[in-house]
């Protein structure tokens, strides 16, 4: 099981690296488009197009900053730590789903199984925090029984 948490942790790291690369490439492409934008005789049209491109860059920079915050959260997690209760870095197994409490990285597939990488402050993550095996929580009007906390 120790190996499983380390592999999930690696997948979360890969998610951050991949997403950061995509955002950086998008920013570079937009900057190139801005540099190639030729000022036409219709000055307002040029300024409007340039402003829209600048707004796109700003949106991507905000997303990159959020991703850096997620990386900082992930940096504080030790995948080798085991606890009897749900804490950041825990792998929570229930009858219906498996949750890896780290960052919001979505669905992770590993060895034919599905794991949901969720933040400890997400709605379900917050309910799981501090729980032990055998604990029950209610989420979206459904009872969830925690089978294992690794």
Question: How many DSSP-defined strands?
Answer: 6
Distance between the termini: 8 Å
| Rg (CA only) | 21 Å
Residue share in β-strands: 15-25%
User: What is the average per-residue confidence, as pLDDT, rounded to a whole number?
Assistant: 92
Low-confidence stretches: none
Report the biggest beta sheet as strand number plus sense, adding barrel if it closes: 6 strands, mixed
Structure in words:
With 150 residues, the protein is an alpha+beta fold. The protein has two domains: 2-75; 91-149, no CATH class. The chain has helices at 2-36, 43-75, 123-128; strands at residues 91-94, 98-102, 106-110, 113-119, 136-139, 142-149. The chain has a six-stranded mixed sheet. The termini are close together. The mean pLDDT is 92.
Keywords:
single chain; 150 residues; alpha+beta; 2 domains; six-stranded mixed β-sheet; elongated
Write a brief caption for the model:
By secondary structure, the chain is of the alpha+beta class. It has helices spanning 2-36, 43-75, 123-128, and strands at 91-94, 98-102, 106-110, 113-119, 136-139, 142-149. The chain is built from 3 helices and 6 strands; from the N terminus they run ααββββαββ.
């Amino acid at each position: 099981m120790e190996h499983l948490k380390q592999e999930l942790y690696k997948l979360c790291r890969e998610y951050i690296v991949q997403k950061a690369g995509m955002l950086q490439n998008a920013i570079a492409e937009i900057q190139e488009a801005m540099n190639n934008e030729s000022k036409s005789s219709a000055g307002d049209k040029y300024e409007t197009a340039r402003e829209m491109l600048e707004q796109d860059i700003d949106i991507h920079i905000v997303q990159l900053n959020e991703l850096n915050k997620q990386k900082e959260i992930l940096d504080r997690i030790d995948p080798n730590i085991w606890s009897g209760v749900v804490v950041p870095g825990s792998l929570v197994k229930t009858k219906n789903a498996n949750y890896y409490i780290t960052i919001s990285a979505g669905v992770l597939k590993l060895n034919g199984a599905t794991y949901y990488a969720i933040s400890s402050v997400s709605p379900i993550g917050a309910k799981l925090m501090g729980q032990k095996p055998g604990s029950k929580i209610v989420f979206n009007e459904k009872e969830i029984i925690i089978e294992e906390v690794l």
